[in-house]
Amino acid sequence: MQSQKGSPVAQMNTADVVPAQVSSYDQPINAYDEAFKENRQPRPHWEHLLKSVRALGDEEMLNKQRRAQRILREDGATYNLTSDPLTPSVWSLDLIPNVIHHQEWQAIEKGLVQRSTLFDLILKDLYGPQELLKNGIIPSEIIFSHPGFLRQCHEVFVPGPHQLLLHAVDMVRDNTGQFQIIGDRTQAPSGAGYSLENRTVVSRVIPSIFRDSQVHRLSHFFQTLKGMLSKLASGWTDTPRIVLLSPGAMSSTYFEQAYLANYLGFPLVQGSDLTVRNGAVWMKSLNGLARVDVILRRVEDAYCDQAELRTDSYLGVPGLLEVARAGNVAIANPLGSGILEAPALLKFLPAISQFLTSETLALPSVATWWCGDSEDLNYVLANINQLIIKPAIRRHNSNSVYGHTLTDEAKANTIEMIKKQPHLYVAQSYVPGSMSPIWREGKLQARPSLLRAFTVADDDSFAVMPGGLSRVGDTSKESIVSNLSESQSKDTWVLSNQPEVPKSFVADTLLQDEALQTNLPSRVVENLFWMGRYAERAEISMRLLRTLFKQMNGIDPLPEDSLRILLETVSTQTECLPGFIDADAALLANPDEELVAIITDATRPGSIKANLHAMLSCGEQVKEMLSADTRIIINELRDHIHDLDRAYINGLPPAPEESLDSLVTSLLALSGLNHESMLRGLDWTFQEIGRRTERALQTAKLLRSSLTKPLPGAQQKQILESVLLSVEALISFRRRYRNRSRVAYGLDLLMIDGSNPRSLLYQVEQLRKYMKELPRNDVPTAGLSPENRLIIKSLNDIQLADLEALSQVDESSQTRLALEQLMTQLLEQLEQFTALISDKYFDHTERPQPLIKNNWEANL
Amino acid sequence: MRYRVRHITEYSYGAPVSLCYNMAHLLPRDTRNQRCLNHKIQINPPPVYQNEGQDYFGNQTFYFSIQEAHKKLVIDVTSDFEITPLDALQWQAKSSLTCGELRAMLNAPNTPDLHMAKEYLLDSPQIRRSQALKDYAQATFTDDQPLLSAALAFTHKIFTEFKFDPDTTTVATPLEQVLEQRSGVCQDFAHLAIGCLRSVGIPARYMSGYLETLPPPGQEKLVGADASHAWFAVFVPELGWVEFDPTNDIMPSDQHIVTAWGRDYADVTPLQGVIFEGGGSQQLAVSVDVQRR
To answer: Is residue B262 part of a domain?
Structure first.
């Protein structure tokens, strides 16, 4: 056993070592150490890395670690357990990779291929002849009582030699250094994308160490995955459309799904983006329905089809299973494959392997007991201190119990719980896992680690990702990191004994058609459309509030009439009603509380924060469409929102007009970026249509609420200037009209000046242009389409407006009645326009309802 | 005996349904004494996609999907059968297997049939074992009782102690309530018997089908008066699955026509699936005719 004293790093090269690093790397007794031998010398394959890390020094390592986190944040790499768009948990990565020698890896690889091959055979048997059950190799009740065994999937096979197409294996080393497998993921394994992201970041942050280490590359694995998926549909097409089916932005691994979809070049879709028609699966795109041949899914088995599986699912595609049954779509992994995750199976694997292949398993599974067996039950109850108790049926909320951590009372309760329904529990012997060094607080520290390895079906065998996702526990305390959320991750380096020759790949046979441009799911486009609208809403409200604050805190006190108009304008503009509409004197005298709410109350629809939240949520939904720079700005925006919360914690801050500046700037940067770096595809067009329509609506609303009510000369001027200021037109106005501050001049600039990018005319002219670019997926009709007619009508209404007449005050009502009427008419036309666009291009299918309320009980 | 069965299912919706996907268990299967000679299925409006198949339990399935708006869905199935009588009572004389012996065999299964029979010993979507169910059945299925006569006695027990009353239960009524109120319909009695049998360690499965009803002497049979029927079967190692009908206190011979079997009703629901839009107030009308030929 290793001694507790001394430092491995120190022994390596005493002279260079920073003392802080030394004492901290306490190696726990009774665990294998990945990096150091028992005499605390580094293992040879770690030497280069450790030496290089040391050479970088404290400060540089800290910088690099920070840089890595920054890149992750900019890439949008998150692991979300909450759905709050403001506080995503950034994926956590330790810079020091886990290094595995290639010779050792070869043995692991063989063991993994053998395991995947075996699991594939088990899957085929369970949904086919069931020889394993008939011959008692697996006690049949384990399978029959497991909700993951989907009888509906009986004999529904994907084409090709394999049923299990993707497999993830969690393993730890025991204290002798032997890897033991503690669990499998066989439905929709996650983690491969995070591995790729880890590799990308690490190789960017420590490029020379990476280059010199001759690390096996990951790309081959993903190419194999892509090739395998496209072959699945070879029975009916040479150019398959492959989609990645995601549970949506609420999914904790949504980043990974978006990342993989982009990397592999597949559209990222959700259940409601797909539909089953005429016995096939289709994607609802702007151009109508596009046939889908292969689905790489991240949605769990039972949630995939409301018609035959869980009717209460929000994530599925009704009718999907039947399409798979008829052989008209291939799903990877096939539905029903979750049964292989049953932990009780581990106990029977050696016997299963003998029965199906006459082979002995090269990589052992951790010793496992199934409490449904009376001998096993007795053993488990007697030895609970050394065991981990796991539910036989894995659920989202099910946790493992570590026997050695239990108090006497908790132990008694656990035993009672097991005795009550023994067949629902499995026990595994506790293997704390090997220790791996992480960089923390300027020093190397030992942490228990776990490796998730990945395999993918490849011709007649399986290909293994060289490396995988290493995870380390948060404390050095002995406990296995089983949950993605509570751990830090690491890149895993499998060292090559020779420089790796990049492989050349067969030409991509996947659809390279207009696919990614025009075959976007309509949901994506709808989110972009709304993202544009919310951004515009937030921006205009903020500008208006900024102006209001300036006027309120100006040198001259604001007359009550004017204040009322400005405050009412804020309320109508944000639609935070009633707000200041018909406010009494008390409210007018103390508007602060309401103003704070309009800015920071996210629960109030129309508030600045609510609009920003809505915008960020839309962005999250279409994460895969956003450029790297966009993500940077979105992160800044999130930071600014947090700043805003801090600034407003005790009500209005001292200089409220400045508090919104950085947010406005970020929003401007966002729209600028869209202009400068987004390809002019349909996604761009729809985002622009959203923006332009919203800006036109907001401007019309602003003119109506601020200028309808006439005021005496100086006051009218002040209001007009406020409006001009809030739409950034005051300087142009002064330059053009000097001191002649007439409402008609203001309307000229804000309504019909085609050179002002904030004028009404400009917005509607742009809309007219974009309309020509939209796909015409309807039956050609004679004349203009209704949405085009609305735009041209609005264009004419604006251009033909008699500005002098508009600025006249109506005798009887004492308002600018003509202005109010025109703006109201424009608002109606534009609202109708967005409704038509959304009806025509976006999907409005309601959720399916079950024919008969069927108590589909997943939880037996 | 030859039969012709006509089974018409009619759904009426309050508002038009634009799209539906359905899995039907309405086509008959073959059994050891039943042969389906032919069947015809007609659906209105006509499905754009349909497919016949077999499910996990070997039942015939019919899958269809309709893509045109409809306020009414009609599924009209006609099938012809030939059924040979079973001398079920004679088995009782021959089979001496006791409940205790069966339990011991299931505890240490050594044949494929025994391994596979365990599926019907466990909880299923609509049937859970419980102490109350066990208490109700325990005395009938003691270790020394011959299994078949015990099952027959239990069938008689349900028949005499429960009242047939269609107004007291729905498809979703839990077994505990049925046991409590001592009333229900054939489906409840079948579920109850299965739950009891599983609770005392005997594999039982759900049988779904039709029963020929005969009009009172001198009267003519009414059209559509027959109904879907449900009963249960018990696993007996040397005989296979033996059926019992607690609603009528008999062992089915040649008047029971089988459409499907499974762990419970949920496995063989006549029509399941989803509809899009419309729906609203759904109404279901079913008519069944069983005619001798």
So the answer is: no
Q: How far is CA A114 from CA A22, A167, A220, A665, in A?
A: 41, 12, 20, 57
Yes or no, beta carbons of A325 and B53 under 8 Å apart: yes
Q: Please indicate, yes or no, whether residues B169 and B195 belong to a single structural domain of this protein.
A: yes
Query: Who among B118, B266, B273 is closest to A141 (CB)?
Result: B118
Residue B62 covered by a domain: yes
Mean pLDDT by 10 residues, chain A (860 residues): 37 35 53 89 94 92 92 82 63 93 96 98 98 97 95 96 97 93 94 95 94 93 95 93 92 90 92 94 88 96 95 94 97 97 96 97 96 95 93 78 88 93 92 88 87 96 96 69 66 86 54 53 89 94 94 85 93 92 90 94 92 91 86 91 92 91 93 84 89 96 95 91 93 87 93 94 96 72 84 96 94 94 96 89 79 41
Measured CA distances, B76 to A142, B41, B265 (Å): 40, 6, 21
Does residue B199 sit in the same domain as residue B122?
Answer: yes
Question: Tokens 């529904």 belong to which residue?
Answer: A156
CB A320 within 8 A of CB A313: no
Residues B288 and B228 in one domain: no
Q: Which domain holds residue B132?
A: 88-253
- Return the closest-CA partner of residue A499 out of A212, A240, A221: A212
> In terms of domains, do B165 and B48 share one?
no
Please report the ipTM that was assigned to this predicted complex. 0.95
Sequence-distant (6+) residues with CB within 8 A of B288 are B5, B6, B7, B8, B210, B224, B226, B227, B228
CATH number at residue B34: 2.60.40.2250
In this structure, are B109 and B51 located in the same domain? no
Phi, psi (degrees; rounded to nearest 5) at A440: -145, 130
**pTM summary value:** 0.88
**Residues 3 through 22 of chain B touching chain A, CB cutoff 8 Å:** 11, 20-22
Helix (H, G, I), strand (E, B) or coil at B176: helix
Domain count, chain B: 2
* Substitution target from B274, B282, B286 for chain A, most A beta carbons within 10 A: B274
Q: Specify the pairing of strand A242-246 against strand A294-297.
A: parallel
- Asked if B98 has any chain A CB less than 8 Å from its own CB, the reply is no
Q: With beta carbons under 8 A apart, name residues in chain B contacting A322.
A: 21, 23, 51, 63, 65
Question: At B92, which CATH number?
Answer: 3.10.620.30
**Is B264 within a domain?**
no
Whose structure tokens read 């895993």?
Answer: A492
Amino acid identity for residue A526 in this structure? E
Q: A845 at the B interface (CB within 8 A)?
A: yes
Q: Is residue B140 part of a domain?
A: yes
